[in-house]
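Lab meeting, item 3. Inverse folding demo.
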């Protein structure tokens, strides 16, 4: 049986519609897209990154996972794998609007989209200081950092650690208990 086609939705319609669904969906420029699942390594690496960021960004900051959407535009909501917000977050919130950090753990099916489209959308958030792409086929982090003048720079870390400002994110912590453990 074929899935029904979802018409183009605005942000409010999408939020009401998705709240009634049994699966997760993202909103890309008004179009509903199914949220892709991941592998055991994807889940382990995402958990490790969230744990590490929780230590690196203490209260009042708060880490969140793939259960919260990130609003990246008027008609765009993404599920990041991990994020950090440093402002009050209502207990019943289903999305975040001003993250400081957004992290995507790559999956083969979403790799190109995460590295190009999502990267561009996240960089448009004025609150965002770091966008981190975590590879799952090799030990590598790509860390996009916003400079003081508002431009972005990308640093690749494939040995030792990546840095979010003066905060060190060791690759051994990121890849612990995954197939990429050293």
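The presenter then showed the designed sequence:
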């Amino acid at each position: 049986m074929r899935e029904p086609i979802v018409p183009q939705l605005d942000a409010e319609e999408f939020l009401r519609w998705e709240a009634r669904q049994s699966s997760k969906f993202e909103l890309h420029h008004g179009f509903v897209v199914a949220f892709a699942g991941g592998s055991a390594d994807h889940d382990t690496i995402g958990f490790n990154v969230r744990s590490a960021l929780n230590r690196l960004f203490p209260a009042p900051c708060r880490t969140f996972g793939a259960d919260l959407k990130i609003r990246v535009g008027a008609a765009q909501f993404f599920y990041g794998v991990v994020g950090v917000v440093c402002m009050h977050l209502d207990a019943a919130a289903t999305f975040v609007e001003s993250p400081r950090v957004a992290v995507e753990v790559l999956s083969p099916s979403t790799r190109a989209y995460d590295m190009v489209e999502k990267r561009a959308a996240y960089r448009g958030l004025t609150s965002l200081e770091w966008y981190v792409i975590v590879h799952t086929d090799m030990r590598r982090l790509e860390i996009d950092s916003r400079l003081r003048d508002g431009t972005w720079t990308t640093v690749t870390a494939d040995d030792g650690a990546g840095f979010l400002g003066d905060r060190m994110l060791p690759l051994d912590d990121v890849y612990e208990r995954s197939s990429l453990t050293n």
